[in-house]
Amino acid sequence: MNGWGEYLAAWACFLGAHMIPALPGPRGWLVARLGRRGYLAAFSLLSIGLLYWLIMAAGRAPYVHLWDQPLWSRWLVNIAMPLAILVAALVVGMSGLIAAFTLWAGAHLVANGDLAHAIFFGGMLVFALSGVARSGLPGAFRVTWQRLVLAVVIWAALLHLHPLVIGVSPLPV
Q1: Residues with Cβ within 8 Å of residue 14, at least 6 apart in sequence
Q2: pTM score
Q3: What whole-number distance in Å separates Cα of residue 30 and Cα of residue 164?
Q4: Could you count the other beta carbons within 10 Å of the beta carbon of residue 121?
Q5: What separation, in Å, do the N-terminal and C-terminal C-alpha atoms of the chain show?
Q6: According to the model, what pLDDT value does residue 1 have?
Q7: Percent of the chain scored above 90 by pLDDT?
Q8: Exposed (0-12), middle (13-18) or buried (19+): which is 111, by Cβ within 10 Å?
């Protein structure tokens, strides 16, 4: 499977993996069998794997140009990403991760001007904003030096690994 078919399949699997466990029955059943930590670990790994597949499928979808990618849009992403990672690392609870995904998707939407990536980042932005609507804006922060160091390490790793894992350098050229 390739092209738009793979892209649609990746979207269907990603959305299904997030919608089905949101229902009280399946989630309760999974938590009862795996335990809360086991469920969260399995769900997190599945989500990361499906997100990666979706990113790769967007890159393999046929290229349809929508808008040019000005140099400032790369700077926008490079400013938004450290902020998103800090929010995810310092906010207590899921609202920080959801806010971080909102920043990630919004900045990347501006910087990627083809149809598949506009659908991907636009869809992720809608998905994240629906999470913000459900959980609210971040309220409580836990600022420690360990969390700050972790945020810097994650940012540096993502910046360094982006060309190897995603196939595109995030740095403005």
Answers
A1: 47, 50, 51, 53, 54
A2: 0.87
A3: 34
A4: 21
A5: 34
A6: 62
A7: 70
A8: buried
Look at residue 2 and tell me whether its pLDDT is greater than 80: no
Residue appearing with tokens 């894992």: 165
Averaged over 18-27, what is the pLDDT? 85
Cα dihedral 151, 157, 160, 162 sign: negative
Nearest to 56 by CA among 167, 159, 149, 153: 167
Phi, psi at 44, each rounded to 5°: -65, -45
User: Cβ-count burial of 122 within 10 angstroms (0-12 exposed, 13-18 middle, 19+ buried)?
Assistant: middle
How far apart CA 118 and CA 114 sit, in angstroms, is 6
Residue type, position 107, single letter:
A
Tell the residue number behind the tokens 């900045």, with chain if given: 107
| Per-residue pLDDT tens digits for 99-158 | 999 999 999 999 999 999 999 999 999 989 998 888 888 888 999 999 999 999 999 999
